[in-house]
Design goal:
468 residues; alpha/beta; Rossmann fold; six-stranded mixed beta sheet; five-stranded parallel beta sheet; 15 strands; binds pyridoxal-5'-phosphate
């Protein structure tokens, strides 16, 4: 399998070449030259497989430059009961007739990002070891992404993580999750400023190309193809759990921000998984809902990006979205480059032509939006009617998913975090304290390992130089 850029860079690359990369050199995102089609006999064979074996089957269609025995070993070390808490890895539970919740949040940081990030940690360690290289991952976080990256990379050979967070501004739980890690290769830098200050420092350090090259600075952001690929697997696993035969179709409702999760659903559908609808659910930050309803993609300014009670979906633009538009436009890289390279940067967005807009329906996408009041009402309804506690992001998915249920087609809502992470809104909705998974009860009391520093690029560079 070879990979190309959505903006037309004609150099085809192998999986291992793009694994440690972010954007393609032309600013586009990597995609396979074609999606492998899964026939019904293969789907039937996969139906009975344990999660790790299913993951191996799917990954090996896209990864042909890691020996099969190594890939199987990495996958088995990732998708097991020790890491994800259950043998099923992504167990499906029935909420009501035809409505299911697929649990993607039983990994170490209680959010779905672990599903991909844990595999990425194993792949990075393997690839860096094979090349005899090291990598210093630099990132900024206000919560979920940073902790998922740290738990994926902790103790991995050849990798250091330098994670910047706004000092005193994360929730006590999120802070404890990250700062309690005692691994030598994990570095928490608490910056005396806000999240944007952290982000600006990361940009400045990565923008110093000499420093970047000398210290092997890299990232693990959501545009990484391997992260997306790992997420394709749980669409298949959810489908198999909700159906008995391949003649059945299902829909998925996906709490969406950067369009990474639902883009994996798009890939699964392109591979031939019988998905009826892909329901993109947004919160008050409705960039994607506006697009799917109107064909207009309008990037928001920071003043127009709201802080909500489903904070991991608070985005101003959807960084993976270009991949879908490339497919929608029949893989026309020239037009994709015009839209994302030119229109987004000069005009803050674009509007699709009518025929392209009408073509969206052929890809199954629909959308909707959920507000704080909706999410509180959904958390309450799920608790009162079904005795199920859901987190705020999953509540957005459920709210919008229910608006798109078709008779006879199961709706699978992806659970993207556990309620324990967002206790404040759970208390507001149902007056109860969400239970913590075993082992996390005393998290806030554990010893913490972090360095406080001013919002100063030179100070952060110096820290990297002395700790890498
Ligand atoms: C990251 C995240 C999302 C959004 O996922 P995207 O892939 O960015 O669309 C939704 N819910 C939770 C809990 C998350 O951490």
């Amino acid at each position: 399998m070879r990979y190309i850029s959505t903006r037309g860079d004609q150099n085809e690359r192998s999986f291992s070449e793009i694994l440690l990369e972010g954007l393609a050199p032309d600013g586009g995102l990597y995609l396979p030259t074609a999606y492998p089609r899964i026939d019904s006999a293969t789907l039937e064979r996969w139906r009975g497989l344990p999660y790790a074996e299913l993951a191996f089957e799917i990954l090996s269609l896209y990864i042909d430059d890691i020996p099969r025995s190594d890939l199987m070993r990495l996958v088995a070390a990732t998708y097991n009961e020790q890491v994800f808490g259950t043998k099923e890895i992504v167990p499906l539970r029935r909420l009501e007739d035809g409505v299911f919740i697929e649990a993607l949040s039983n990994g170490p940081t209680l959010a779905f990002k672990d599903m991909a990030m844990q595999l990425l940690g194993a792949l990075f360690e393997f690839e860096l070891g094979r090349r005899g290289q090291t990598l210093n991952i630099l990132g900024a976080t206000s919560g979920d992404t940073g902790s998922a990256a740290e738990y994926a990379m902790r103790g991995k050979r050849g990798v250091n993580v330098f994670m910047l967070s706004p000092h005193g501004r994360m929730s006590p739980f999120q802070q404890a999750q990250m700062f309690s890690l005692q691994d030598e290769n994990i570095h928490n830098l608490a910056i005396e400023g806000v999240f944007d200050d952290c982000q600006d420092i990361v940009k400045a350090v990565s923008g110093d190309l000499a420093f970047k090259r000398r210290w092997h600075i890299g990232t693990v952001n959501s545009i990484n193809w391997a992260r997306l690929l790992a997420q394709v697997v749980y669409y298949f696993a959810g489908y198999f759990q909700a159906t008995k035969t391949n003649a059945e179709r299902v829909s998925f409702a996906v709490p969406s921000g950067n369009f990474g999760n639902i883009c994996a659903g798009h890939v699964a559908r392109m591979m031939g998984l019988p998905i009826d609808r892909l329901v993109a659910a947004t919160n008050e930050n409705d960039v994607l809902d506006e697009f799917f309803r109107t064909g207009r993609y309008r990037v928001r300014a920071s003043a127009e990006t709201f802080e909500t009670s489903s904070p991991s979906m608070d985005i101003s633009k959807a960084s993976n979205f270009e991949r879908f538009v490339f497919d929608l436009l029949g893989r026309d890289a020239v037009r994709t480059a015009e839209l994302f390279g030119t229109s987004v940067s000069t005009a803050g967005g674009f509007t699709l032509d009518v025929p392209d807009f009408e073509h969206i329906a052929d890809f199954g996408f629909v959308s909707g939006k959920s507000t704080h009041a909706d999410r509180v009402a959904m958390i309450r309804a799920a608790w009162e009617r079904h005795h199920t506690m859901i987190d705020t992001h999953t509540a957005d998915g459920l709210k919008v998913g229910l608006e798109h249920v078709m008779p006879g087609v199961p709706m699978i809502v992806l659970e993207t975090a556990l309620p324990a992470k967002f206790a404040e809104t759970i208390r507001e909705a149902i007056g109860l304290e969400p239970a913590r998974p075993a082992g996390l009860e005393g998290l806030e009391a554990l010893p913490k390992r972090f360095a406080v520093m001013p919002p100063d690029v030179a100070a952060v560079k110096h820290y990297i130089e002395t700790h890498a």
